[in-house]
Amino acid sequence: MEFMDTIAAIATPPGEGGIGIVRISGDRAVEIADMVFKPKSGNKSSDIKSRRVTYGYVIDRDGNQNIDEALMTIMRAPYSYTMEDVVEISCHGGFMSVKKTLDCILKSGARLAEPGEFTKRAFLNGRIDLSQAEAVMDIISSKTDMSLSASVNQLQGNLTKEIKKMRDKLLEMLAKIEANIDFPEEDIEEVSLKELEYGIDDVLKKIRNLLDTSEAGMLVKNGIKTVIVGRPNVGKSSLMNALLKQQRAIVTDVPGTTRDLIEEYINIKGILMRIIDTAGLRDSHDLVEKIGVQKTKETIQQADLIIFVIDGSEKITDEDRKILDIIKDKKVLIIINKIDLAYRVDIEEIKEFLGDKSLIKASAKENIGMDIIEDAVADMVFKGEIKMGQDLMITNMRHKLALEQAEKSLEKAMNTLNSGLPIDFISIDIRETWMNLGKITGDTVEEDVIDKIFKDFCIGK
Ligand code: GDP
């Protein structure tokens, strides 16, 4: 364990609430607790048993004035979040109360923690690996059941275990190659070559299985970027409202990254749909008309899913065809809306354009077909393969890239093996694969990458 000073931060979000928690971690945490917290019992804080909650007062070190009534818990190393001595003081959740408590702690010798520094210590002290640390962040930012359960799965170390198994296997192969180089009798080498081929193939399959989950995993974590398109008055806003009404929980309205795009979140079967609503779209203005063909194309290009709404009570127009042409290469869900009215649209023509893309008949007004739309969205994400929270999913772009690099280096190893080159050539590629996989768990990652990951954390975590 390397030397680390004692840090402190407010762990709860700013604002007024039931309680506010200030957290201290490091060698001097208990000593500082003695200075800033006076148990009601008259004991010293440092006499309190580990992980027992104590009632008392936060005190001003100089004036001995009571700042707030609070509860304090000491979690002694190594049985704490950071594996260091940790003290948590739960005071009243008011701005002044937590701030003054933190001030007292800082005056007593702690340093204000950087974002994510508690979790970084848990990683540096070896309690969790890098993928688990990232999972902590993902849990905090989860907006659906499914992304929460995928992140908890990762925090529990299921990805860590899988990566470790593969890396152990690669090390074992490396050891065998070394043995072959040291004792190059021919019969030993022949047996080992087969074994190596089997081993490489096995790990390669495992890497590919994980990579196969990354598309769905990323959608689960980040939500499906969805754009609703269609000419004016086909029922885009009505459809969006019907979907919003249908969902069990509206997550939140979050302003988008640009000024004219607003994101609306809809939770569909545990999947977050980020509906990109251009300003004015909901006032019945047409997306194409509003922002121009070029911008529409860009917006559509960036989307994971296009919901294309057609008015089923009218014949297809040139404007529909223009949109069909723009979206034909994307993942599209076609909604034939207004089926409560007389049916005039020519479905065959649409099919000609869009092939076998999903087509759903609906009525936003009469609330028909909304369940089918929800099912279709879920099917698109999971292709019926992954069930919620049960399987390991790659939800993190950094992990995906590392796996892709690992796949590449291991493919190289396989090619080298098949080409009959000397066996020690393979060891370079296997070692590289081992390194690439280690990036996920943080075993072989550079310090600046680690710093960058923790910078995105919130203060106090
Ligand atoms: P947008 O311009 O594409 O957003 O279309 P709107 O959602 O504003 O709808 C245009 C008009 O069509 C409104 O008068 C809606 O009430 C009506 N409308 C929308 N969906 C349906 C539907 O399923 N059936 C019927 N009969 N009318 C609908």
Care to describe what's here?
The chain has helices spanning 29-36, 95-107, 117-124, 130-141, 145-155, 158-182, 186-212, 214-222, 236-246, 287-302, 318-327, 347-354, 370-382, 397-418, 423-441, 447-455, and strands at 7-10, 17-25, 37-39, 53-59, 66-75, 86-93, 111-112, 224-229, 253-255, 261-268, 271-278, 305-311, 332-337, 358-361. With 461 residues, it is an alpha/beta fold. A seven-stranded mixed beta sheet has the order 3-4-5-6-2-1-7. Strands 9-10-11-8-12-13-14 form a seven-stranded mixed beta sheet, with helices on both faces. Strand 10 (261-268) and strand 11 form a beta hairpin. Helix 6 (158-182) packs antiparallel against helix 15, helix 7 (186-212) runs antiparallel to helix 14 (397-418) and helix 14 packs antiparallel against helix 15. It starts with 6 loop residues before the first strand and ends in a 6-residue tail after the last helix. Mean pLDDT is 86; it is low at 248-260, 278-284 and 384-389. The structure holds guanosine-5'-diphosphate. Guanosine-5'-diphosphate binds at residues 230, 232-238, 284, 337-338, 340-341, 363-365.
Q: Could you give the distance between the termini? A: 20 Å
The residue ranges in which pLDDT falls below 50 over 5 or more consecutive positions are 248-260, 278-284, 384-389
Total number of strands = 14
Strand order of the largest sheet: 3-4-5-6-2-1-7
DSSP helix fraction: 40-55%
Compute the CA-based radius of gyration: 29 Å
The overall pLDDT, averaged over residues, is 86
Task: Encode the helix/strand succession as letters.
Answer: EEHEEEEHEHHHHHHEHEEEHEHEHEHHHH
Instruction: Characterize the overall form.
Output: flat
Largest sheet: 7 strands, mixed
Structural class: alpha/beta
